[in-house]
Design goal:
Order of helices and strands: HHH
Shape: rod-shaped
Number of strands: 0
Distance between the termini: 53 Å
Number of domains: 1
Low-confidence stretches: none
Helix content: over 70%
Largest sheet: none
Mean pLDDT: 76
Structural class: mainly alpha
Radius of gyration: 28 Å
């Protein structure tokens, strides 16, 4: 009888341990999903407009360089080239900024901040 009781107690402890780990894993998974959503929203808002700003800045610089070095006929091509270069640079800069903001906010969230 003592062996049966001991087996029942051990099985109950094992089941309780498995249940506790399962609840903890589920809570951690929910926390990760929540933090991913928070970090994505934060990064999207923080990096909004980087590409547009880069394109506008590039177009302005290209316009100026085209006018300065190309004379009257170089203004439009300079602006177009500057627009393209500014868009590419703005997108690259925006992507790096987005990643930095995302991972910073995600890590803060997972740490409970």
């Amino acid at each position: 009888m003592n062996k049966v009781l001991r087996a029942i107690v051990m099985a109950s402890l094992a089941a309780a341990t498995v249940a506790a780990f399962s609840v903890e894993a589920q809570a951690q998974s929910s926390r990760k999903a929540y933090c991913r959503a928070v970090a994505k929203q934060y990064a999207d808002e923080a990096a909004a407009g980087s590409t547009a700003q880069g394109a506008a800045g590039g177009a302005l610089l290209g316009f100026g360089a085209g006018a300065l070095f190309g004379g009257r006929g170089g203004v439009v091509p300079g602006a177009i080239i500057g627009l393209g270069a500014g868009a590419v640079t703005g997108a690259a800069s925006g992507s790096a900024e987005w990643n930095q903001n995302y991972w910073g906010r995600f890590n803060d969230c997972m740490a409970g901040n």
